[in-house]
Amino acid sequence: MDVGIDKIGFYVPKDYIDIVELAKARDIDPDKFTIGIGQDKQAVPQPYQDAVTLAASSADSILSADDKKDIGLLIVGTESSVDESKSTAAFLVDLLDLPEDIRSFEIKQACFGATAGLQSAYDFVSLNPGKKALVIASDIARYGIKTPGEVTQGAGSVAMLISESPRVLKLEHKSVYMTRNVGDFWRPTFSKVAFARGKFSNEVYVDFFTTLWDRYQAKYDVTADDFSTMLFHIPYTKMGTKALRTLEGKVSDEKYAELMANYQDSVKFSREVGNLYTGSLYLGLLSYLVNAAKANENLLLFSYGSGAVGEIYSGEIQPGFEKVIDKTSLETMLEQRQKISISDYEKMYEVEYHDGTIVDPAGVDAKFYLSEIKENERIYKKNN
Ligand code: CAA
Fold it and tell me: What is the DSSP string of 331-384?
């Protein structure tokens, strides 16, 4: 049975900051941010948006009533969870009008969460013919104002419907993975912002890629020539370039040029949005599908979650994939956002809702939003 991604959708908040303006406000040469880091814009969520509302929004953009009937598994990968006990997934059952006979939970392993969800969904669909699984990556990446990581923030969500006879990407069931206890990036439960050993995290990321790529080639007897494109976890768009550069001189010049060119198509959306944490690899996939992909291409995907877990796996783009992806809506969503000033972003960053907060719906510009915190319980609403 062929199993893989049947539908893929994305949601980004409506506000963003301009990276050149951020650089100027921090007294940094803008080229460092636009060339050295590789970002142009950074999505900024409203205080009434969180991992739950972002997840609801991306899933809502792809699900039909028929899909909902067939879903038996719902997994949300996030490291921006709003509750230490209740999963993001449980909130979504109401917001998305999903049936009750669903196994739902949240997975956390930094930016690896969505890949863990995707592989679990593969197993579930393979064992339950006719059933579908919904996997959602939803995060708000926060390092704090005036930190080195500030330029690598962002927010958004990617939803994927996993089914048999997938119309977008058939998963090959070929993968290699590894775990090492590494202190490159972490967020203690008391903190709203992440801590990172930035340069060390870059080194670990590249080391995971080279180690796993060597193992993948040996295990499946393949080379770079078997793939037209390699997709990467993209905390910032320069990061994947650093991994790809390890192939220079090891693959033909033509292959290296092809991989680099295709990588640029996969990071177009990320340049506009910033870090989605666990959704970043899948935003890269979506960007590639919208901007350059061709039917029957073999993709190699590198997933990395600090702490650290990495996985390389592969998939084949399905003929007709472009009919399942709403390219116009995605591009319109990105184009119709509004730029906010750096000082407005800084003010919004400090807003924290506490018990007793009631959000005025008149000020909400999103379909799904946090409406109230009552007895410390978060209550969500949907605008119709
Ligand atoms: N013009 C052009 N380029 C310039 C420049 C200029 N004027 N000034 C500097 N640069 C270049 C530098 O040469 C450097 O390029 P290389 O990386 O190719 O050498 C690049 O800009 C960045 O410069 P620095 O390394 O000096 O930047 P920094 O010290 O401010 O830190 C960072 C950069 C480490 C990425 C930091 O933003 C950070 O800590 N980010 C968070 C951690 C992270 O994203 N790590 C990635 C792997 S772990 C992961 O994936 C975690 C996750 O998603 C949650």
Answer: HHHHHT-EE--HHHHHHHHH----TT-B--GGG--SSEEEEEEETTEEEEEE--
- Tell me how long the chain is: 384
Residue with the smallest CA separation from ligand 1 atom 46 is 202
pLDDT in tens, 120-129: 999 999 999 9
Q: Other C-beta atoms within 10 Å of 14: how many?
A: 16
What CATH number did the domain enclosing 369 receive? Answer: 3.40.47.10
Q: Measuring from atom 14 of ligand 1, which residue has the nearest CA? A: 36
Domain count along the chain: 1
Q: Which domain holds residue 115?
A: 3-382
CA 145 to chain centroid, in Å, comes to 22
> Measured between alpha carbons, how far is residue 257 from residues 61, 263, 348 in Å?
35, 10, 42
CA 158 – CA 138 distance, rounded (Å): 7
Confidence (pTM) = 0.98
Of 210, 266, 259, residue with least CA distance to 233: 266
